[in-house]
Design goal:
Elements (H helix, E strand, L loop, with lengths): L24 H14 L3 H4 L1 H25 L11 H6 L5 H16 L11 H26 L2 H6 L11 H8 L5 H18 L8 H6 L3 H4 L3 H10 L10 H5 L7 H10 L7 E6 L14 H4 L13 H13 L4 E8 L2 E8 L9 H20 L4 E4 L6 H13 L6 E3 L2 H11 L6 E5 L4 H12 L3 E4 L2 H10 L7 E3 L7 E4 L16 E4 L13 E2 L4 E3 L18 E3 H12 L13 H10 L3 E2 L11
Parallel strand pairs: 1-3, 1-4, 4-5, 6-7, 6-9, 7-8, 9-10, 10-11
Antiparallel strand pairs: 2-3, 12-13, 12-14
Helix pairs in contact: 3-5, 3-9, 6-8, 6-9, 17-18, 19-20, 19-22, 19-23
Length: 600
């Protein structure tokens, strides 16, 4: 937001929120009607689909930029991105909406805007000349004026961008315009604007050696980035020629450009290995829609309309052969990265796919080890008991492996124990009896908390696998316990018989479906991150902002403490030791959500 907002700082449709595009509905409906029943005028019916083309074009740039900056290769600015900036920039598509609205109004008012030809050479040439001359010149001086204190504080500090329409308007009035001139020019503006703000340099040096004059005709990402960091230089729109003419080119322009090209991909200290969950989760990743990624993952009805892209993404996951860098963070002296196994949750339950996933995880661990990674933590189903056991066998085969593999079980157990309200003397355990469940049972029984189950065969299995004192394990009616510990592979319909006010605490990777009214549901094992953990601007799946899963935190703590051991297979670290280290490094426990579930 501008530091001193001036007139027209906010878009007029801001109160409409996500429904702002509804203002175009009359024109969209009329253009469809005209296309089918009246006249197929491309000047009219192309406005709506081209709006989506522009949005897709911008989204591709956003995704590529986030991917490149996470890897670190050729990155220009190291300043961290936080949730505040993401929220401030969620209206990036307002300019696209404004252009579409302007085009519809122009078409309605001016007859010369109708029935444009697809191509006119003189119109295309005129558009290019008008941009290089009047538009670039006027923008340069307007931009310099906006950096005057009065205007800057009221408008430009929010970094608004103008919709440059002068060449389009001029070619229309001299009747030399065309579809190619109008929409080609808009595409040029979008391309150059997105390129200038992508925060990674990719212009090859050879290009400027072959075409020396190019540096006057096209800026590079590093050139425009210096305007954002130095403020009083590099004012040009897209063509730096006027900066060179009037002496406002920053002195470090060439050095910054060359240093960015030489910058290599960063090698992290800690890697967290995750994967895709639901089919539409690809849109809610950090590399997807920023506005969705910056909030806890929930089902959105409009994502169903994206099924062609969802289908394509699923096909890509079937053929993709390696993990990709999803996110990069910094904490104390550690460089942290999150890597994504390109597989959906459903694929982890396929025996054929599970073999391929095991191999993919093996290759990822080896790649991380060769890159100098100290610790790799396994998230979601990447640390499923079968996969974790496979990793343990794999590690035994490679005694020279320097990287430490952590499944985070000990911190998960510690987090669940801390989530149980003080004074609780009985809990109901539901779910698969994996190593996390068994560790929780042992810890609770040592604290004189009775662990109950519903069925006699479950009780017998626990008595056989857990050595505890008599009375620590028992059968219980389903509606008696007030605290439920729920894991994997349990019948979620059982919660419908829970008594009102019951608390459900998951120790599983995925949250249970909230089916019972009047009950409380805790988050999956997680903690609040310290404020010194930076560049955190996306939510981890369904968790709130600045909250991180215990599995992910475990790898960070492992590296900070310098522990020289793996935690996978049947191994569980000292629970108290891991919890104490987490608190000491600034991680905080999550409070029990006090909002009762209102939906059954």
């Amino acid at each position: 937001m501008a530091s001193k907002p001036g007139i027209l700082t906010n878009w007029p449709w801001k109160p409409l929120g996500s429904f702002k595009f509804v203002i175009l509905s009359p024109w969209i409906a009329h253009s469809i009607y005209s296309f089918i029943w009246v006249e197929q005028d491309p000047s009219y019916y192309i406005i709506f689909p081209y709006m989506f083309v522009r949005m897709l074009h911008s989204q591709i740039w956003i995704s590529i930029s986030r991917y490149q900056t996470a890897k670190g290769k050729n990155r220009i600015v190291d300043k961290c991105l936080e949730f505040e900036q993401v929220d401030r920039e969620t209206n990036w598509d307002d300019q696209i909406l404004l252009t579409a609205l302007t085009f519809y109004i122009l078409y309605t008012i001016f007859p010369m805007a109708a029935n444009l030809p697809w191509w006119r050479t003189d119109g295309v040439v005129l558009t290019a000349l008008l941009h290089a001359g009047p538009v670039e010149f006027l923008y340069y001086w307007l931009h310099r004026a906006l950096h005057h204190h009065y205007l800057y504080s009221r408008y430009h500090s929010h970094h608004h961008s103008s919709i440059v329409t002068e060449p389009i308007t001029s070619t229309m009035f001299v009747k030399k315009s065309s579809i190619a001139a109008v929409y080609g020019y808009i595409f040029y503006i979008d391309f150059m604007n997105n390129m200038g703000h992508c925060n990674f340099e990719f212009f090859p040096k050879k290009l400027f050696s072959y075409f020396p004059l190019l540096k006057y005709l096209s800026y590079t990402p590093s050139f425009h980035s210096l305007h954002h960091t130095k403020f009083r230089s590099n004012y040009s729109l897209f063509m730096p020629i006027y900066d060179y003419i009037y002496g406002t080119v920053d002195a470090s322009t060439d050095a910054t450009y060359e240093s960015c090209l030489k910058r290599q991909e960063e090698s992290p200290d800690v890697v967290h290995l995750t994967h895709l969950t639901t089919l539409d989760s690809i849109f809610q990743l950090r590399l997807g829609f920023a506005s969705l990624a910056s909030n806890p993952q929930t089902s959105k009805w409009y994502l169903n309309l994206m099924w062609p892209f969802t289908l394509c993404s699923m096909l890509v996951t079937w053929i993709s052969g390696h993990a990709i860098v999803l996110e990069s963070n910094f904490f104390k002296d550690l460089k942290l990265q999150c890597w994504l196994i390109p597989r959906f949750k459903i694929q982890y339950f396929s025996k054929k796919q599970c073999i391929k996933i095991n191999k993919l995880i093996e290759e990822t661990i080896m790649m991380a080890d060769l890159s100098g990674v100290k610790v790799i933590s396994l998230g979601l189903l990447n640390q499923r008991q079968e996969i974790s056991a496979h990793c343990a066998v794999y590690i035994e085969r490679l005694p020279n492996l320097k990287i430490k593999v952590v499944d985070g079980s000990s911190l998960v157990v510690a987090t669940v124990l801390n989530n149980i309200p003080k004074g609780t003397n009985q809990v109901l355990l539901r779910g698969k009896f994996n190593k996390v469940a068994l560790a929780i049972i042992n810890a609770l029984c040592s604290k004189n908390v009775q662990v109950t189950v519903l069925y006699r065969d479950e009780l017998k299995e626990l008595e056989r696998r857990v050595a505890v004192s008599d009375g620590s394990l028992a059968l219980s009616p389903i509606n008696t316990p007030k605290t439920w510990l729920v894991g994997e592979d349990w019948d979620e319909d059982e919660q419908m018989q829970a008594s009102e006010g019951s608390l459900f605490i998951p120790f599983s990777h995925f949250p249970p479906k909230k089916m019972q009214k009047g009950c409380l549901y805790h988050y999956t094992p997680a903690m609040i991150t310290p404020t010194t953990l930076v560049n955190l601007h996306s939510c981890e799946n369904w968790l709130p902002r600045r909250v991180m899963s215990a599995w992910r935190i475990a790898g960070i703590i492992h590296a900070l403490e310098g522990w020289d051991a793996h935690e996978c297979g049947d191994t569980v670290f000292n629970i108290e030791k891991v919890w104490e280290a987490s608190i000491r490094h600034g991680y905080l426990p999550l409070k029990i959500p006090q909002k009762l579930n209102k939906f059954g």
